[in-house]
Amino acid sequence: MLEIRxxxxxxxxxxxxxxxxxxGDTEGPVIVELVKGLxxxxxxxPLLSLVALSDQRIVGHILFSKxxxxxxxxEQSSILAPLAVEPDFQNRGIGSSxxxxxxxxxxxxxxxMVFVLGHPEYYPRFGFKPAGQYxxxxxxxxxxxxxxxxxxxxxxxxxxxxxxxxxxxxxxxDHPEHWRE
Length: 181
Known about the structure:
This protein has two helices and nine strands; from the N terminus they run E-H-E-E-E-H-E-E-E-E-E. Strands 1, 2, 3, 4, 5, 6, 7, 8 and 9 form a nine-stranded mixed β-sheet that branches.
């Protein structure tokens, strides 16, 4: 039985293990440091951290941190980064459940848009669309070859198109190495 809930302080070690194993030996340590940083970064608040548990064991994690479109700071937005599922539990719908629950909770909290730099084959199933076509630019330039990886999901109908500009993220995420797909 899969349980999805907000993470708690005692979940930190388990969710970091998930991040490291999901992203592998090269990228895993970088993602672990990113998650630890975001969880302690006051510029990332409000943030939403969810874990997926199978038999009381953390097998998935998703993190949404504060974002804003420059000039529209009063309108709440978030960035999804990262999403991780333990390799032995992948392809079972756990990642989809985490994304779906996260988007639902963010919409209930009044978040207008959610951004992600991720796989263009995966995220559109949740309603994500290329953000660049709406004039919403990533914090760092996305190479033309992978520009479709920078996406946005509207949580407040009619909001996309009313705001345009570069997106600002939390200080921990605001480094060029985190903006390569």
